[in-house]
Amino acid sequence: MEDHFSVKYLRKECLPTPFCPGCGNGIVMNCFFKAIEELGYRDLRNFVFCSGIGCAAWIPSPHFKADSIHTLHGRAIPVAMGVKLVKPHLKVVVFGGDGDIAGIGLNHLVHAARRNLEITVIMVNNMVYGMTGGQVAPTTPEGARTTTTPYGNIENPLNTAELMVSAGAAYVARWTVCHIFHLKRSIKKALKKEGFSFIEVISQCPTSFGRRIGMRRAIDMIKWFRDNSIPIQKARTMKKEELKGKIIIGEFIDKEADGFCKKIYKLIEKARGGS
Asked: What domains lie within the chain, and their CATH numbers?
């Protein structure tokens, strides 16, 4: 029991978590802990966690036994940037939902990827604004019913992973909560990456989304993820019509490039008269 996550990484006084029954946030949290344990971290003293507002923002704060900053809605990434610039030796990780990261804070996400800022962003995409009542989000599938689209969503969902590739991120991956081993490996890779790493995790929200699309149980949504996921290698051989309604999973990009903080400190050294 001394090595259990609840002892090493979680504040016992903050348990149980506030997540709804069937929520996927616990799965994401578990995968993250398993990843850092396999990387050799016995505590979280070398980490700082930033999050905004929303269900997924409660994953690190106040539950992780670590330094964390709970910011305004959509503003976790610029706060994380400030932390990384001042303390470049620390691992800075942002947790947030699709509404927080790809909706309210999308501009910060794009520019962090463009700069190749040395942080890791884990976006838990439950395809809806879950905490505030189940409103349509930028990632809500076309045709899906929400509290603000009772007759079905007419907008195209944002492909955040592809956007991150275009913006210049060093590492981008997308998995679902059904692909826990793949997700764990991606988190390990992202934390070791020099540059901006982005992981999108498709997750169930039976409370605010599943029951409105005919999947009231969490297991129904997880099976739907399993049956509708297409590996990215296979997706590249398929037609656009064949991919409609499917979830493309896998690593979208994995490259090496100097990060923003590294460039900043080189510039400071140069300005001081160094080589």
From this structure: 22-271 (3.40.50.970)
> Of 12-16, 119-123, 219-223, 230-234, where does mean pLDDT reach its minimum?
12-16
Kindly report whether the global pTM for this prediction surpasses the value 0.85: yes
Query: What is the per-residue pLDDT for 274?
Result: 66
What value does the mean pLDDT take over residues 193-219?
Answer: 94
Q: Would you state the structure tokens that stand for residue 44, as one six-digit string?
A: 């979280």
